[in-house]
Amino acid sequence: MNTDRDNETETIAQKAQQMEEARKRRRESAWYGLGMFGLVGWSVAVPVVVGVALGIWIDGKWPGAVSWTLTLLLAGAGLGAFNAWYWVQREGRDD
């Protein structure tokens, strides 16, 4: 009876080890790297494009001495860089 429990415990330990190895392999694949590259790219591109579009709209409605397009482009780039940093840090942590 004790050997049945030992066998079950050993089987469970082997399955847990296999699952852990599969998780590690998933992170090392080329598809994972490409996905992460795309995530970082979009997290920078979207705030920049939104900032430029909003800046063009503001400059068209209320022209002035300050170029809102350039200002919001830089703000979007800063926000995008912070966003990319956040995602890289989050994915880089050991789960």
Can you offer a commentary on this structure?
With 95 residues, the protein is mostly helical. Helices cover 87% and strands 0% of the residues. The longest helix is centred in the middle third of the chain and has 32 residues, at 30-61. The protein starts with a helix and ends with a helix. The relative contact order is 0.11.
Summarize the model shown:
With 95 residues, the protein is an all-alpha fold. The chain has 3 helices and no strands. The chain has helices at residues 2-27, 30-61, 68-92.
Structural descriptors:
95 residues; mainly alpha; rod-shaped
What summary fits the major beta sheet?
none
Helix content: over 70%
Report the span from N to C terminus. Answer: 37 Å
Per DSSP, the total helix count is 3
CA-based gyration radius: 24 Å
Structural class: mainly alpha
Strand residue content: under 5%
Number of strands: 0
Question: Quick check: average pLDDT?
Answer: 84
Q: Identify the overall geometry.
A: rod-shaped
Runs in which pLDDT lies below 50 for 5 or more consecutive residues are none
User: How would you spell out the order of helices and strands?
Assistant: HHH
Secondary structure: elements and pairs:
Elements: H1 2-27, H2 30-61, H3 68-92
Helix pairs in contact: 2-3
